[in-house]
From TrEMBL:
Coiled coil: none
Protein name according to UniProt: NAD(P)/FAD-dependent oxidoreductase
Keyword Zinc: no
Organism: Nocardioides deserti
Superkingdom, natural source: Bacteria
Length: 359
């Protein structure tokens, strides 16, 4: 059976960046992607999300970013970015295999790793995990939620604001997605925004220094083995020009989290019932790393402890698009760091085998 230098799991920004740098270093690898088409999580985002709405798409290594549509804010993000990724795969002849749904990664013979997907498997010396979070939407449980007669949606399946026209929508969550959803929904629906904690609004400009500070704080968490936190929790929220009308309509008047869900709405802490036709859970995602469970990478603190992109518990494993590298810019840097770490590990393993053979 063929043994790869590296198997990359996931072909989003982080996975493509890692693949590019692995190829540049001459390392034999394959990229396994669960989707049927290029584009990573971008291909699944809602149709009303345009390039004007996204926070920016960093250029992949040795490529320009999505140029005209991005600069003018035109085009659906779920079309423009996947087309950009597809062109990148073709241009750099990246070894992407799809659709491949990786089920588990486990130890193999002679210190190798075996990646399993259904009846197929790949043997590799190292693994670069680039699965992101999109496949693991998080919805907290509240009493009575099963009794709600209206619709419940999560950001992962948001159907667009027109679906909710003329209805009462409770938006749950204190992050950027909630702010963005409210910016659309308030123009066509009656909204109520609830969060567990008061949102932190950013009043100053988001400078590169602020960005580096935010990333450093998230890096510190994963370095200690804690679950990664949201960068927005550090940087704070800000309204974009297209959300000012929603603000004027009161969409960002935050209310405390409800205590229970009832058939016709949500029960607030003061005992009042807020009527609702729909609940939109903008409550985020969790890292999609359950397939790594056999490797026992988690620390006692609940996260995967990293040194750069290297799993402290198993230096054969690199994690990109995890924690501080979840942004497109961070994903690019992490891809390069991971590829370099793979080469370093392989060099060290080769030297160890040579010493063992000569002794």
């Amino acid at each position: 059976m063929r043994t790869y230098d590296a198997v990359v799991v996931g072909a989003g920004q982080a996975g493509l960046s890692a693949s590019y740098h692995l190829r540049r270093l001459g390392l034999d690898h394959v990229v396994l992607d669960a989707d049927r088409a290029p584009g990573g999580a971008w291909q699944h985002r809602w149709d009303s999300l345009t390039m004007h709405d996204v926070h920016g798409v960093a250029a992949l290594p040795d490529a320009d970013p999505p140029a005209d549509q991005h600069a003018r804010g035109q085009g659906r993000a779920n079309v423009v970015v996947p087309a950009y990724f597809a062109d990148y795969e073709r241009t750099h002849d990246l070894p992407v295999v799809r659709p491949v749904e990786v089920g588990r990664v486990e130890d193999g013979p002679d210190g190798l790793l075996v990646v399993h997907a259904g009846d197929s498997s790949w043997t590799t010396r190292t693994l670069v995990n680039a699965t992101g979070t999109w496949r693991r939407p998080f919805v907290p449980h509240y009493p009575g939620v099963e009794s709600f007669r209206g619709e419940q949606w999560h950001t992962v399946a948001f159907p667009g604001s027109e679906h909710f026209r003329g209805r009462r929508v409770v938006v749950v969550g204190g992050g950027a997605s909630a702010v963005q959803h409210l910016g659309e929904l308030a123009l066509v629906a009656d909204t109520l925004w609830v969060t567990r904690r008061p949102p932190v609004w950013r009043t100053d400009d988001f400078t590169p220094d602020r960005g580096r500070e935010a990333v450093a704080l998230v890096e510190e968490r994963v370095r200690r083995g804690l679950p990664p936190a949201s960068v927005v929790g550090v940087t704070g929220l800000a309204l974009r020009p297209q959300e000012q009308e929603a603000a004027r309509l009161g969409a960002y008047d935050r209310h405390p989290m409800f205590t229970a869900v009832e058939p016709g709405g949500v029960r607030m802490p003061d005992g009042s019932l807020e009527r609702a036709d729909a609940i939109l859970w903008a409550t985020g995602f969790r890292p999609a790393v359950t397939h790594l469970a056999p490797l026992r990478l988690r620390s006692d603190l609940g996260g995967i402890q990293l040194d750069g992109t290297t799993a402290v518990a198993d230096p054969r494993v690199q994690l990109v698009g995890y924690g501080p590298s979840a942004s497109t810019i961070g994903a690019n840097r992490a891809g390069r760091t991971a590829a370099t770490a793979v080469r370093r590990y392989l060099s060290g393993a080769s030297a160890t085998r040579s010493r063992a053979a000569s002794s």
